[in-house]
Structure of Os03g0837300 protein:
Amino acid sequence: MAAAAAAAANGAGGGGGVPRPTNPMVTPLLTDLYQFTMAYAYWKAGKHLDRAVSGSLIPFPSSIPSP
């Protein structure tokens, strides 16, 4: 009973979570904030000096076996 009261006091009372933003400018700004935060974390950790490798899951035509 006390746990349910504490959850309701913290805003977890039956609303189904956090409401979605109503302003269409909010979501892109949150995405940019995430990107800036991740870039800063990589820079602080010194990861910007490491070599990056990217890959693709699409095989080259020469690697597809002929029938």
